[in-house]
Specification:
37% helix, five-stranded antiparallel sheet, alpha+beta, 5 strands, single chain
C-alpha cells in the first residue's frame, strides 16, 4: 500500500478499498508504514459514518461499491482500521444485508420485536 503522505485521502482510501475487494478484508495500522499517518476516512469523501455489530471498535464507516451489490465496512479501533467487504450493501439491500452479513443483528431485532409484542399483550390483558 502506498504511503499516505504521497496520496490524497481519496487516493489512499480508494487504494485500500481496491485491496479489500481483491482479498475480502484489509487491516491498516494507524501508525502506518514508516511512520506515515493514515488519513481520516471521512476526509476521503468515500466513507460515511455508520453502525455495525459491536466488536470493540470506536466507530464504523461504510462505503458503496458503484455497480455492485457489495458494500464496504470499515471498523475503526484505537490502533487500526479493519476493512471488509459485505455481500450486500446495507444502503442498497438492507434486508439481504441483515440476513447474509449480519444475522446476529437480525435475530436480535426479531427477538426484540417478539418481546415487545408479548409485553404489550400482557399489558392489554391486565386492563
Amino acid at each position: 500500500m502506498a504511503s499516505s503522505q504521497k496520496n490524497s485521502p481519496y487516493d489512499f482510501w480508494n487504494e485500500a478499498l481496491s485491496e479489500a475487494v481483491i482479498y475480502g478484508h484489509l487491516t491498516l495500522f494507524k501508525d502506518g508504514v514508516d511512520g506515515a499517518v493514515i488519513p481520516d476516512p471521512e476526509e476521503s469523501g468515500l466513507f460515511r459514518r455508520s453502525v455495525g455489530e459491536y466488536h470493540g471498535q470506536l466507530r464504523d464507516w461504510r462505503a458503496t461499491i458503484p455497480g455492485s451489490e457489495k458494500g464496504v465496512h470499515l471498523r475503526e479501533y484505537s490502533d487500526r482500521y479493519e476493512l471488509h467487504i459485505d455481500r450486500f450493501d446495507p444502503y442498497k439491500h438492507p434486508l439481504k444485508h441483515l440476513v447474509f452479513d449480519s444475522p446476529g443483528t437480525l435475530f436480535g431485532l426479531i427477538g426484540a420485536f417478539f418481546m415487545s409484542a408479548m409485553f404489550l399483550g400482557i399489558i392489554r390483558r391486565k386492563r
